[in-house]
Amino acid sequence: MRQARSASPAAVTLVYGTGMGEPGDSEIEALLADPAWLPHRVLDDGRLVQFVRLSREERRELPFLDERFVADAAPRLDLALDRIVAAGRAAERCHYVFHSAFCGSTLLARALDIEGVATSLQEPQALVDLARLLPPSGGSEGQRRALDAVLGLLQRPFAAGEAVVIKPGDFANPLIEAMLELRPRSRALLMYAPLPAFLLSIARRGLCYRPWARRLATIYRRQPEFETQQTRDLLLLTDLQLAAFLWLQHQARFARLVRDLPAGRVAALRADAFLAEPARTLAAAASLFELDLDAARAAAIVAGPVFSHHAKRPGRPFDPAALKREEAAAKFAYGVEIGSAVEWAGEVAAEAGVPMSLGAPLPG
Length: 364
Known about the structure:
Distance between the termini: 52 Å
């Protein structure tokens, strides 16, 4: 073990398994058995995993488990992937909430983080790192090995008997098939917003989210679910047309999963259905994941602080009236642009055979 670098005066990063002072297998196993050490980054083309130490309470205070929010001062540790694989991990229960953004997935995952029932992970950076390593032709055996190791570490619960619900970031969606194949007992909830609501969410957030859609669209351009004459040159599309293209790519992937996976392993959930009946939906999602959560407890969670605070700004009260004002202002300013993008997307969807609404609803 040796000190590698200091991200800040309070942060020390240690490197294990690099050939200098390597610890024994029992020491590595003890480190990997502690769920507080979260696999945070995948570095060096997949050969090195960086861990960050975060308690359950610290994780709950963060909107997402990515570099924007994980403090530099948090203790970090680097470990060679080969040492992680050699140590092995015991199989635990792991399920997924996949999403296409702005659909309530963060709120749902937070609501399912219940001590003694489940631990939820909000958009771990390590999965995004692995997705970015994917070549256009798909993953290699080495990348699959790295993903298997990272999943084995993400699915460690804080308490015995808990399931782990992983909500990957949408940048990690190219890994969906591999994640499901590597964990054949896992189940998946596919969350999405109706296209007009998705575009409104981007428009009302200002210029900062338009580049986000362009960056994510470039990933899908490398591995598209479909291609039509109107989507061959993304540079010709307006910002919201490009965002609609991104939504359609997600939708096409989700539709394929619904079609190809066995009944009962996957379910789809639209944002407006979730918000219309949050308690019923929460209990149904828990049932999909085989969690011990009855209707009465689901109703209590909906009536509690998780639903009264911003899902992406923990600790800040949620103001429904303010949200309605923001949406009304955005509709006034961008309504014509949104309507044009929705009309364009409808033409593309018809040509490519992409459903605007998914089947496989949650039971119950």
